Amino acid sequence: MNVVTIEIGHTYAHDRLIRLAAANETGDFYSPEIGRAFNDTAEAARLRKIAEYFGEPAIRVALVDDVAVKEAQKKSAEDAWRWQHFLNAGFASVKLGTGVEWSGLFRESDFEQDGRAMVAQIQDMELPGGYRLSQDGRKLITGSGRDRLAVPLLGFKDVDDVTFPSCQVLDTAWLQKRLTIAPEAITVLPASYEQQQRGANVLAGLMGIDSSSYTTVFYNPVD
User: Fold this and answer.
1) β-strand partners of 7
2) Which residues are registered as beta bridge partners of 38?
3) Which of 142, 217, 123, 211 is nearest to 175 (CA)?
């Protein structure tokens, strides 16, 4: 029985977890979907090693942050096919580099509607003590003074639509999805995500997600 999902990495679509090989190189991996070879990286090898630690009961999943690239694709309709090739290479890079199945590879843009529903729910609910909305309703605020934390609900970098859900909201929607796959979720992220995850944890609590059902492990990426 699979009791946990293990997310190894959170890759932006414009990055490559493993690198496209030159046309004359055999490469370490080959993607039949795009007909290209890739070379492994120390970062990808490290993430796969972490995933192996959890053994067979863990379902490997990965998330590709494709939101900004999808926005660029939308703005450049005449080159939409070029952007799609770019996205496909990014998806293949993450799949091969992490060792996930295609069914375990998710796109952050797919959680837009769930994120919008979550924001509407938060804006309409009677918030528990210690929580409040900013005056414009775009942030959820907890604490005060040094303990004050303002969690963005709306706004995503490089997306013109000011009503687009924030990274923290989309991450929470992603966590909800993972908990439908297995009752426990473990996430391995670069240390640079720590503050963002702090905000996502606040939203998860507000959404009634038991904090004992998920764990986030931070690491320093390989140079």
Assistant:
1) 61, 187
2) 20, 29
3) 211
Domain residues for the domain of 10 are: 4-219
SS3 221: coil
Number of domains in the chain: 1
For residue 44, give Cα distances in angstroms to 19, 78, 94, 213: 10, 34, 9, 26
pLDDT along the chain (223 residues), means of 10: 82 82 92 94 91 86 92 84 90 94 94 98 95 96 91 95 97 97 93 92 96 92 65
**The dihedral sign for the CA sequence 197, 198, 204, 209:** positive
CA distance 89 to 173: 25
Q: Which amino acid makes up residue 97? A: G
The CATH number of whichever domain residue 24 belongs to comes to: 3.40.50
Q: Which residue has the tokens 């919008």?
A: 116
188-218: b or e for each residue (b if 16 or more CB lie within 10 Å)? Answer: bbeeebeebbebbbbbbebeebeeeebebee
Q: How many CB atoms within 10 Å of residue 49?
A: 10
Handedness of CA 98, 15, 160, 75 (dihedral sign): negative
- AA identity, residue 181: I
